[in-house]
Amino acid sequence: MTIREVGLRDGLQIIPRTVPTAAKLAWIRDAHAAGLRELEVGSFVPARLMPQLADTAEVLAHARTLPGLVASVLVPNLKGAERAIAEEAHAMLVPLSASHAHSLANLRKTPDDVVAEIARIRAARDAAGSHTVLEVGISTALGCTLQGEVPASEVVRLVQAVLDAGAERISIADTVGYADPAMVTRLFEQVLRVAGERFDTAHFHDTRGLGLANCYAALQLGIVRLDACLGGIGGCPHAPGASGNVATEDLAYLLASMGIATGLDFDALLALRGRLAHWLEGEPLHGSLWRAGLPKTLRREEVAA
Amino acid sequence: MTIREVGLRDGLQIIPRTVPTAAKLAWIRDAHAAGLRELEVGSFVPARLMPQLADTAEVLAHARTLPGLVASVLVPNLKGAERAIAEEAHAMLVPLSASHAHSLANLRKTPDDVVAEIARIRAARDAAGSHTVLEVGISTALGCTLQGEVPASEVVRLVQAVLDAGAERISIADTVGYADPAMVTRLFEQVLRVAGERFDTAHFHDTRGLGLANCYAALQLGIVRLDACLGGIGGCPHAPGASGNVATEDLAYLLASMGIATGLDFDALLALRGRLAHWLEGEPLHGSLWRAGLPKTLRREEVAA
C-alpha cells in the first residue's frame, strides 16, 4: 500500500504564496526520510499560469537523487509531457476531467480532445525511448461543481478510451469532495471491470469529512495507491475555507491501525507537518492525528513494519 | 437509520461550562424541528459529580412533550435507573466499561459488578411496570487509554452476560477514539453473533479522524442507530483539544449522500449548530460540512426523503 504525497503539486497549486525552492527541497528530503516513497513534486505548466510551480524541473531533479523515491509530475498536455520525459520524471500524470463543463473551463478542451492528446503523449514517450510511466487521472469523476452529476458511464467510457490511447495506469479523483463510500464502491467496481489492475490509484478530497471513509471503501476494492497531502492542504477553489486533500498523516494512521504496512515514521511525518505550517504561514492546515497523537494500542514496531 | 443526538449528555459532560436549562430546552426543540427523533438528554448522576447535568429531570420532561421524540438518559447505577423509570425516560443507557482498569477508575466497580447492577436495574424496571427500554452501552470496547488493548473476547463475554442480566439493547462505544474500520468489522461481527438484532447501535469518537469511516463500517454490518453530537462536541478528557463525537451534521451528510433516508433538514441542523457555538462560547466545535455546505449533486428532495 502506497501513500503518494501530492502536497508539492495539488497542495501548492491553489495557494497563492510561492514556497522557495530551497524549502521544497527540504520538504522532499524530510518526506523521504519519514518513509514516503512516492511524491508528486510539481507540474509542467507555463510559469505565467502557475508561478508557484515554476521550479518543477529543479525540484524534480532533486527528488530523483533520493534512493527509492518515485517522483511524478502533472502534465496538462504534450508540451508538459515532453518536459517530463526530458527531465526523466518517473511518472507523469495527465488529468482528464470526466465533466465536460469542467474540462472546457479548465483546459478549453473536451474530454475527447484530451484523449487524443494522451495518444500523442504516449507516442512521444515511446519515440523517446523513455521509461516515464504514463498515468491518466480521471478528475471530477464523482461529481463537479460546474456540471453537477458526472455519469459513471461517461467515466467508464473515458477510462476505456485513455487505455486505448496508451495510458498505463489509471487514477480516479474526487476533485471537489463530492464522493461518499457507496458512490466510490459503485464507480470503482465499474472502472475495475474495464481497467483491471491498471486502475490502482485513488485521490480523495476531505471537503465534507468523508475523505478517509472513501479511502477505506477504495481499499476494500483493492486500490493500492492513495494520494494525500500532509496537513490536508489543497483546498478546493470552489469551497473557500474547506479542507483539501486527505491528510497524509491521518491516512497513514488509518492504514497502520488496520495493520497495513506503510513504512512511515509518524514522529518524522508530524515534525514535517510542523515545518510545513511554517513554510505556508497563514494557510490553514487540517487533519486530526497531530492533535491526538497515536493511540496507546498502536505499537511502534507495528507502525514501522 | 437513526442518528441519536447525544450532545446534551456526552457533549456537555466534559465541558465545565453549565448550559442554562432554557438553552437546553431550546436546543431540544430545535433538534426536534430539524428532524432528529432520538436524543440523549442527560444523565441521572449525583449533581455534585456533574452539576452541568443536574437539570436532567426537567430537560427530560420537556423532551417527552415533543411528538415522536425518543428521549433517553444515561444511568450509571440502580439509583439513577430508578429516577429514569420514575421520570418515564423512553430509554436508559447503562454504561459498562469492557476495560477493567477504566471500569475501576470510572465507577469503582469491576465490569462484573456492573453486570450484577444491570440485573437489579432490570428487576426494578419490571417491578415498576415501566416501559423504559434498558440499553447497555459497552464502552472502551475498542481500546482504553488506561489499559490499552481490550480483548474482543472480553467484550463478547460481557455482551452475553448483560443480555443474560436483562439488557434489551446493546450499543458498542469507541469511547476514546481508538477504533479503525477493520477493528470495528472484526468486533461487531463477533458481537452480532452473540446479540443478533439486539446489537443495533454504535457510538464513535472522531479523535483521530476515523469516526465516519468507522460509521461506514458499522453501517455495512447492519447497525441501524449511530450516536453523534452536533459540532462534534464531547472531546475526550485523555486527549485535550481532540475532537469528540462524530459530528451529527457530517454523519447526516454521509447517510444522505449514500441515499439513506434520515428525515433531517440540513439548514435547520446547521442553524442549530450556530446557536450551539453561542451557548458553548469558547468551546471548539468540529466537523466539515458547515464549512463546505451540501454538494450540488445532493438534491434537497433526496435529503428530506
UniProtKB/TrEMBL annotation, chains A, B:
Keyword hit for Lyase: yes
InterPro entries assigned to the protein according to its UniProt record, in alphabetical order: Aldolase_TIM (IPR013785), HMGL (IPR043594), PYR_CT (IPR000891)
Xref: Pfam families: HMGL-like
Alphabetical keyword list: Lyase, Metal-binding
PANTHER family named among the record's database cross-references: HYDROXYMETHYLGLUTARYL-COA LYASE (PTHR42738)
Name of the molecule in the record: Hydroxymethylglutaryl-CoA lyase (HMG-CoA lyase)-like protein
Residue intervals of the Pyruvate carboxyltransferase domain: 1-270
Domain of life the protein comes from: Bacteria
Statement: the UniProt record of this protein carries the keyword Nucleotidyltransferase: no
Record-linked PROSITE patterns: PYR_CT (PS50991)
UniProt-listed GO biological process terms: ketone body biosynthetic process; L-leucine catabolic process
Family: Belongs to the HMG-CoA lyase family.
Gene Ontology MF terms in the entry: hydroxymethylglutaryl-CoA lyase activity; metal ion binding
Organism: Ramlibacter tataouinensis (strain ATCC BAA-407 / DSM 14655 / LMG 21543 / TTB310)
